[in-house]
């Protein structure tokens, strides 16, 4: 276990060897960073770049799931559709739901539908659908 040391410029932050632990929202200027005695490896906090939220249709999700099951990589599909790798992994985990939803929906609704929520009372939903049509 390494003993933390305290920099005279920033006494409230303990440093461990060459690692600098920055609290959220705390930035060092270049002059402050160069003045730190033992710390030459610095982590410069940049402006956070947040990915725009992407909503995929059920058809696109089904396409991704079928390609993954065929042996293609998660990374390839995450880059192609602009979503995170963990999102594609979640789709793989929920592949049975996606397949079922794609099979039960007619062609048009799968193209536009983006959520996988189903009605709480399916019987009531079917009766209302028949009444509406």
From TrEMBL:
Known InterPro entries for this protein?
Homeodomain-like_sf, HTH_Psq, WH-like_DNA-bd_sf
Q: What name appears for this protein in its UniProt entry? A: HTH psq-type domain-containing protein
Where primarily located? nucleus
Q: Name one GO molecular function term.
A: DNA binding
Upper classification of the source organism reads: Eukaryota, Metazoa, Ecdysozoa, Arthropoda, Chelicerata
Matching Pfam families: CENP-B_N (PF04218)
Subcellular compartments: Nucleus
Instruction: Enumerate the spans annotated as HTH psq-type domain.
Output: 50-98
Q: Which domain of life is it from?
A: Eukaryota
Its GO CC terms are: nucleus
The signal peptide, as residue positions, is none
Name its species: Araneus ventricosus (Orbweaver spider)
